[in-house]
């Protein structure tokens, strides 16, 4: 929106041309989202407290979590609003990727909202039934996958799987393979972030770090010069994902101000499902799905721990971990909650650096 305005004002004063630069718009997008989160966070927390929309703590969980009962939840709405406003203000609204990623974020946000609303307001412990949740997630993810497939400007690149750390190694994907693969990336990423969101700030900081790194990939992939120099496929329009990812990072850091231990507000499914789906879709757009798997290793490990726990219990009647997801296992082993959180953050920083190294190592 403001990009178009700046282009018009440049006719009268050349200084407005600075707002046409992608990096400047990304910086302003991050700052806008950060300010919005910090400014409206207290109001949202107060509003949620008045409505008594607070977290229910399971008795089977760690005892240290019992004092968290009643903490305002559904704070993820703050993140989504900040991202939406910032992206609409600073992104190129003529870019198809911008609208697709916003649509997916909002669609998964609505699914999370319904789930949270049923749990926290209507008192339905189950929330949105798993089958219904996965059905609507599937509808949103498949719609995005099909849209990306049909609107591809360079199918040879956009419909291929890029193998990181290898130069020019692309595996062509047919229509069915592409759509299914994109579907699994989006839905898998969404649920992985949701499973990780169990401690104060545990999920949001890795999401910020991974989102920021994906923004760098988008910036490089959307620039013909940088893409050629780094030996990565050029994807026209992918650079605008930097503006979206910057908004995600700014909104996430603003939310972390209130979500850091001890949390004043929890993200809820409305935030976790939407952020995870957004990260998955951005990875698809910039052709870095496998790198997302590396950088989001914490999300992957958390998900795998749940799968292993359920499979082991059903097949042998025994549990591998004291409790799943994995962060609860370490809590029950005696690790203080802040220690678990910070160590998972450190692991994410390392994995993000490993992922970013794929830009040069090939």
Topology overview:
Blueprint: H1 2-9, H2 22-50, H3 76-90, H4 96-120, H5 130-150, H6 155-158, E1 160-162, E2 170-172, H7 175-196, H8 204-221, H9 224-230, H10 241-259, H11 268-285, H12 289-295, H13 297-316, H14 326-332, H15 337-356
Antiparallel strand pairs: 1-2
Helix pairs in contact: 2-3, 2-10, 3-4, 3-10, 3-11, 4-5, 4-11, 5-7, 7-11, 7-13, 8-10, 8-11, 8-15, 11-12, 12-15
Fraction of residues in H or I helices: 55-70%
Listing every helix as H and every strand as E from the N terminus to the C terminus, the arrangement reads: HHHHHHEEHHHHHHHHH
In angstroms, what separates the terminal alpha carbons? 38 Å
- Number of distinct beta strands: 2
Computed CA radius of gyration, to the nearest angstrom: 20 Å
Tell the overall outline: globular
Spatial strand sequence of the major β-sheet? 1-2
Task: Compute the average pLDDT.
Answer: 92
Largest sheet: 2 strands, antiparallel
Low-confidence stretches: none
Please give the domain count.
1
Structural class per helix/strand content? mainly alpha
How would you characterize the overall build of this protein?
The chain is mainly alpha-helical and 362 residues long. The protein has one domain (26-359). It is 66% helix and 2% strand. It has helices at 2-9, 22-50, 76-90, 96-120, 130-150, 155-158, 175-196, 204-221, 224-230, 241-259, 268-285, 289-295, 297-316, 326-332, 337-356; strands at 160-162, 170-172. Helix 4 (96-120) runs antiparallel to helix 5 (130-150). The two termini are 38 Å apart.
Quick description:
The protein has 362 residues and is mainly α. The chain is 66% helix and 2% strand. A two-stranded antiparallel ribbon has the order 1-2.
